[in-house]
Amino acid sequence: MRTLISLTFFIFFMGISSLSHAQDTQLNFFTDPEWEKYPFKPGDGLMISTLPDTTSFINGVYPIDDRGFAELPMIGKVNVSKMTVHQLVAFLRKNYESYLRFPNIYVKPLARVSLLGGFTRPGLYYVDVNSSLWDLIYMAGGTLTEDGIYEMHWQRNEKERSGDLTGFFESGISLKKMGFKSGDIFWTPSPTRRTFWDKVRDVMPILTFATTVWAIYNTYQRDILILRSR
């Protein structure tokens, strides 16, 4: 009987220990070792995923304001800029515990980037700094012209960062290793940008038509004068 009781307590404590270890492992599973201690920066973004429940209302990307606060569903403003990844995951798990079908929560800091000009989907995006330039261009649907990659420019504070980005594109290194910073701009010339000669080509048919009408009118007036003079 004593042996059975001892065995029961042993299994119980082992179960608690395993559960605690599983939770700790879960917290560490999605943590990138290259992220700094407080990766959620003012002005950037925060992505939250509850795997494998992809339909949860918590899933989404949340802007972080200039004070470091993110507006989270049902909780309100939370100062995420002073939280580590582990602290934020624990905070979310505690506050959303009754709404989660699974206890898995994945959080990721995102930086701001502007993709302007000749992209299929130009605009403002949140991006993981550990993704590559290839991923970034893929996000925007690629360039509108074949040489759009070769003509791409990278700017920060209105200054050119690099004259040729094809090496970064082909190597697949991360934006972070490129030296990317939140707020940087990538742009490539748009084929829809109209030059002076494009406008001239648009006007030429109108000018040609007007010249033809004027010539016909002058010819008609000349013929009338000739007939009257006879």
What's this, in brief?
With 230 residues, this protein is α+β, with helices and mostly antiparallel strands. Helices cover 39% and strands 20% of the residues.
Kindly state the mean pLDDT as a whole number?
Answer: 82
Sheet bearing the most strands, described? Answer: 7 strands, mixed
Beta-strand residue fraction: 15-25%
Write down how many β-strands occur, each being a DSSP E stretch of 2 or more residues. Answer: 9
Class per helix and strand makeup: alpha+beta
Low-confidence spans: 4-29
Large-scale geometry: elongated
Number of helices: 6
Question: What is the H-and-E element order?
Answer: HEEEEHEEHEEHHEH
Radius of gyration: 32 Å
Portion of residues within helices = 25-40%
Q: What is the distance, rounded to the nearest whole angstrom, between the alpha carbons of the first and last residues?
A: 141 Å
Structural description of this entry:
With 230 residues, the chain is α+β, with helices and mostly antiparallel strands. It has 6 helices and 9 strands; from the N terminus they run αββββαββαββααβα. The chain has helices at 2-29, 85-95, 133-139, 166-171, 175-178, 196-229; strands at 45-49, 60-63, 69-72, 76-79, 106-117, 123-127, 153-156, 159-162, 184-188. The strands form 2 sheets. Strands 1, 2, 5, 6, 7, 8 and 9 form a 7-stranded mixed sheet that branches. The chain has a two-stranded antiparallel sheet with strand order 3-4. The protein starts with a helix and ends with a helix. The model is unreliable at 4-29 (pLDDT under 50).
